[in-house]
Specification:
Length: about 140
């Protein structure tokens, strides 16, 4: 089974997590084997749940340097810095990391502003498009 981390498009786009039936803890990325909450007594059944689409910036930084080995980074391609955002999902009581949409920099961000998860492209070549999610400040057109 391939674990799905997100589904849908446009306004239906959602990150997917799992919830433990015993302690109600929510996990992202998904957990399909056991409850990761060390305080969970029963380690209940895990079910897929769509996560809140919107959250608030908890922290952020910029990625200005090409990742070191063993991470994949084609030295022939131009490296483009991007903003990395930690977003607090209040309902789920978790923080989810992700890149900002292209064009949004750390100068556009502040702790506490509202952002939403939108579909994005991580990388592409002639044969494959690797999709992901991005965080976009609400009110910013796609």
């Amino acid at each position: 089974m391939v674990a799905r981390w997100f589904s849908g498009d446009g306004d239906d786009f959602r990150l997917l997590g799992t919830r433990c039936s015993t302690c109600a803890s929510v996990f992202f990325p998904r957990e399909d084997v056991f409850c990761r909450n060390p305080g969970c007594s029963g380690g209940g059944e895990l079910s897929e749940v769509p996560l809140s689409r919107r959250g608030r910036v908890w922290s952020y930084t910029d990625s200005r340097y090409r990742p070191p080995s063993p991470y994949v980074s084609d030295p022939e391609l131009l490296w483009e810095p991007y903003a990395l955002i930690a977003v607090e999902l209040e309902r789920e009581r978790i923080v989810v990391l992700g890149q900002a949409v292209p064009g949004i920099t750390v100068a556009d961000l502040a702790v506490g502003i509202e952002v939403e998860a939108v579909p994005g492209v991580l990388n592409e070549d002639e044969e494959t498009i690797w999709t992901t999610w991005h965080w976009r400040p609400t009110g910013v057109a796609q």
